[in-house]
Amino acid sequence: MCPTFEEALELVGRRWTGAILTATHQGVTRFSEYRAAIDGISDRLLSQRLKELETAGLLDRIVVPSTPVQIRYRLSPDGLELVEALQPLAQWSLRRSVRGRARQTSSA
């Protein structure tokens, strides 16, 4: 398998990465908004994932020079492209989930 593809899968497969990318795509921009949008993520892990996604070039970090300074995040062009590329996978998982519930209902 291609090493770059493996790296991409590992990055996307890390816990909370999908939730952060999805939240950003839905308009979340600030740390406190991520905490509110992503149930169960710790501050430490959220901070770590935001830095990883920024380092990977999937999020842009914007510093707003105000008092106090505001930090905002947005999808970079690569991040937006990744979210769009993941849409078929998200749709597949939803269809699979619906089929799984239907099987559970019919066997009950």
Describe, in plain words, how this protein is organized in 3D.
The chain has helices spanning 3-13, 17-25, 31-37, 43-55, 77-107, and strands at residues 59-64, 70-75. With 108 residues, the chain is mostly helical. It has one domain: Winged helix-like DNA-binding domain superfamily/Winged helix DNA-binding domain (Arc Repressor Mutant, subunit A, Orthogonal Bundle), CATH 1.10.10.10. The chain is globular and about 60 Å long. 11% of the residues are buried. The model has no long low-confidence stretch (mean pLDDT 92).
Keywords:
about 10% strand; 5 helices; Arc Repressor Mutant, subunit A; mainly alpha
Tell me the span between the first and last alpha carbons.
41 Å
- Helix fraction by DSSP (H/I, runs of at least 4): 55-70%
Average pLDDT over all residues: 92
- Return the structural class: mainly alpha
Shape: globular
The count of helical stretches stands at 5
Order of helices and strands: HHHHEEH
For the largest beta-sheet, the strand count, sense and barrel status come to: 2 strands, antiparallel
Q: What fraction strand?
A: 5-15%
Number of strands: 2
Q: Any guess at the CATH architecture? A: Orthogonal Bundle
Summarize the structure.
With 108 residues, this protein is mainly alpha-helical. The protein is built from five helices and two strands, in the order ααααββα. The chain has one domain (3-107): Orthogonal Bundle (Arc Repressor Mutant, subunit A), CATH 1.10.10.10.
What is the secondary structure topology, with strand pairs?
Blueprint: H1 3-13, H2 17-25, H3 31-37, H4 43-55, E1 59-64, E2 70-75, H5 77-107
Antiparallel strand pairs: 1-2
